[in-house]
User: Fold this.
Amino acid sequence: MTLTYDMARACVAAAMAKAFEIGIAATIVVLDGGGHVKSLARMDGAWLGSIDVAMKKAKTSVLFEMETQAIWEFSKPEAQAHGLESTNGGLVTFAGGIPLKSSGGTLLGALGVSGGQVAQDLAIAEAGVAACNF
Amino acid sequence: MTLTYDMARACVAAAMAKAFEIGIAATIVVLDGGGHVKSLARMDGAWLGSIDVAMKKAKTSVLFEMETQAIWEFSKPEAQAHGLESTNGGLVTFAGGIPLKSSGGTLLGALGVSGGQVAQDLAIAEAGVAACNF
Amino acid sequence: MTLTYDMARACVAAAMAKAFEIGIAATIVVLDGGGHVKSLARMDGAWLGSIDVAMKKAKTSVLFEMETQAIWEFSKPEAQAHGLESTNGGLVTFAGGIPLKSSGGTLLGALGVSGGQVAQDLAIAEAGVAACNF
Amino acid sequence: MTLTYDMARACVAAAMAKAFEIGIAATIVVLDGGGHVKSLARMDGAWLGSIDVAMKKAKTSVLFEMETQAIWEFSKPEAQAHGLESTNGGLVTFAGGIPLKSSGGTLLGALGVSGGQVAQDLAIAEAGVAACNF
Assistant:
């Protein structure tokens, strides 16, 4: 099973609907399992800076197959893999990146969101992922 | 007047419809007038390499406000601005990038397409731009 | 409304006048709303290193539409978006970058200053922005 | 003798006046003898792509202490230093970059212009240099 464009677009559209609902202008991106972009939308009013943050969140979730904030637990100062965030061209280790997996657990890609407060980005990302029916 | 997400998405969707019609899997991207991505779609089966080509085509059209192949006329060997394509992080100077302008001639952004033969990329891009009602 | 060269130059000149007044040699730059330079001045005696710092301050204020030091509040260690400064090719999160907005709140660009103590850079930047009559 | 900001600004202003006179919107930049920017102006309507081209023209003239088009004579295919333009992060080898030298021949910096046809860029650059009284 691989991520199709229709799946990716459905994730982005669902995330965008959530962002509208809570009044946030965000960039939303879905990457495939190789970390290459499938679908991206930058909503009107989203900071220009949100493009790179959303891309790096999604990339981070592809690279380590977990939600971005989970990586912080072992990359933060004093943790075992301190400084990990400076590898791979720069990781983002706060919430808003979520891996997309098949029901069998295979990595299909990831969704990244940036534009609001971190808790808002996470809510938008979770709404996007919930709409992906793999 | 500035490019909205809805405009950008409509351009991408129209280009994608043309690509389906002629049987080409492409990456299609719309950038705003500052060269920042608004909407991107990579169709199933499109080469991974098409992402960067489509992005650079659209960027080239934003940077010089003309279709990509028009730049070749003055950047090619022996032409007055020979080697121009190595500036700005690398231009693409064959067809597939088209600037988006308002009816008054203001630059709003650009559309870039990559995935097929160059003439096919151009046909897809032209179909996308034709659907943009500024 | 978009930022004109005359506006940008007026901002730079006013900032430069303030810098002279307080005896600081600085680099002062104005970027447009897409993050592209419109006007730049490096005063005699300003550190060479001030060029990149001023550029990154202005870019940071374009990318997130706020003063640079405001970003530190949520990008610093323990804050919600810790590490944000390593995105977008590197942000600067201390004072000296200020977004330029129309009276209606539209982002027109940003001004960045580097060369003195941070409080001095901020004072210079504020003097520049105050002279911009949008 | 070193290039002062006032000299650099005078060169840029004179070049800008020439550009207005011939109806071209250009980016005009003056670098010092170390290749670091002193003064830059992007006129309203100048292509975004002109920023990097003007910078690279001026840089090229600092790096080899000659006008940009003169470098093409020995960097072009079949010439002795073929491919030289791909060194130093990319040179521009068509007209529009002119070194600034003291009456004694010391390199003080360079002026770069981009925005029009190459002959126009050269005319603008020459007008700028003519106004610099070292």
In short: Chains D and A do not touch (no CB pair under 8 Å). DSSP finds four helices and four strands in chain D. The first helix of chain D runs from residue 5 to 22.
